[in-house]
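It is worth pausing here to work through a concrete case rather than discussing structure prediction in the abstract. The textbook approach is simple: state the sequence, then state the predicted structure, then interpret. We follow exactly that order.
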Amino acid sequence: MTATATEDTATEDTATEVTAPEAATPLRPDEGAARAYREHGARLRAATPAEAAAELADLSTAVRRDILTTIRSAGMGHVGGDLSVTDLMVTALWGTLHVHPTDPGHPRRDRFVLSKGHCAAALYSTLASCGFFPRARLSEFMAPLSPLGGHPARLKVPGVETNTGPLGHGFPVAAGCALGAKLRGETWRTLVVLGDGEIQEGSNWEAAMTAAHYGLDNLTAVVDRNRLQQGARTEDTTSLEPLGAKWTAFGWEVRVVDGHDHRAVKEAYAPSTTGRPVAVIADTVKGKGVSFMEDRVEWHHKVPTDEQVRLALEELDR
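Step two, the predicted structure:
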């Protein structure tokens, strides 16, 4: 299928002036959704691996639907990477980590960091599904003065641990979180999701080296290995392979999985068995779930038309 889409572009001179609200309404927990999240989480923990995987797959489909409609409404976003990371994020926040949507700053919460912060629509859609804020607020994505900006902001969005978007920053912060837990004798975990193009940034390898040095077995780094970055394939830009061997050489326990197999991902998120930090290399597909977006570099930040959204939602419903 040949797809057309609106580019994420802007100019300094505009024909009409957009009037922003005087103040953005702060995001508050959705008590009903948070209660459902707690109840659903208890069922997931009691379910068989196959049952839990099926539940997580359904939740991921719902999040993908919200990503598509959110980006279409905003007229901008990074839909390809949002769709590739969805299963990894849903499995983390619904099936693995202990977080508290009605008390986002709970001192013993597990920490989740989305280092590839440009995929904010996926993060917001997942946080809303957990009840950190009402799902209806997704319609404000990237609106003037909205707390739901193009990159997540810790002081504006409950559930966001640190501001991310400048690539290579989230992983060092996550390593610091994990080290902080060790220094305090706390048992909570930190999980960080990285883009594969992002790990071309040297700061990530400084964080990897530091985490191994301090034996941060409470830290899991997940690479969204969709093999595409903004304008090309990762291997044509700066080759990453042999990726697993590099993490091993830096002192990490490495697990390679199908990033869209919820059961495999959930098992890969299990705590370290070696006393070393864990690197999960998740093989994914950019634009996963929508055939005309899958593995297409142009969907890094193209915006689907109304008709393309309709077709995409039909595919997700099958």
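Step three, interpretation. The chain has ten helices and seven strands. The longest helix spans residues 49-74.
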